[in-house]
Amino acid sequence: MAPQLTPKRRWAMAFTPVLIVAATTACSSPAIGHLPLAAVADAPLTGGTTRWDYASLDPAAHRLYLAHLGDSVVTVFDTQTQRVVADVPNVSHVHGVLFVPELRRVYASATGTDEVVAIDPVTLKITARVPAGDYPDGMAYASEAHKLYVSDEHGGTDTVIDVRTNTRVATIPLGGEVGNTQYDPVSRHIFANVQTRRQLVEIDPATDKVISRMDLPGAEGNHGLYIDPVTHLAFVACEDNNKLIVVDLTSRRVVSTFDVARDPDVLAFDRGLGWLYVAGESGEVSLFHVQGQTVDPVASGVLGPNAHVVAVDEVTHRAYFPLKSLAGRPQLRITEPKR
Q: Which top-level group of life is the source organism from (predicted)?
């Protein structure tokens, strides 16, 4: 999700698990390090022991879409049977994956071909290919505008795709290397991390223009991003200095900064529990409790090798972490709150 020569791209480094014993299928709910989580299962995944990237959940259909970057496929996993349903091939070096409920459609960013593909979740076939910018990565959907926004990380832009026609309709220059992009349903605006400028940039989908830039003091490599519409807080993960920056989007100011697990990447939020997950390339995960405007650290601990991707089911409160190699094969570590 980030370019080479940054901590997040050093995923090939040796990893020595110290707090977890690898399992192959069901687990007897062991505790995971210092985290208040228990492992439910380590479910086998398909393909090689290569890198995984973003994940996106369709809780109604009990399907989890996983970007298997190293194998250039989107893996479809059934969360009820805990089995792989299919692999959608020919998504070159897939990074981002996003299920859009309103459209009943899956989008994936194919970094190897600098395009975005649309996938039908019924047939699991690619239905469209849309040109993007240089190194497309994270994606966000602005529902009122019927537009998909794609972070072109190396190109320093966001590509805008009209989902009604699956065509590129705009390219927005952001002035620096772009991290993750997210939609804010409160303002109905798009926000994107501009890593090399240490800024959070705001885009109006009505005009596809940058309308504000928020400086992020203390940010280094602000890549990961999650926006909670209830609290109207933006959570920014900084991969180069292991920080979580919390931004109040109403007042447009940084309200707190925390230390997190090394090389933080993907964030996920369980609204029912108020739990914010920050998953790191180091295999560590940091957990925070969010209540209103108050954010408190809960714990950090080793979750599994290269556990830098997380998706959360807010109904079951289960969290899903694709692991590149566990006991010599790719597996999906499934956790739930420890009882």
A: Bacteria
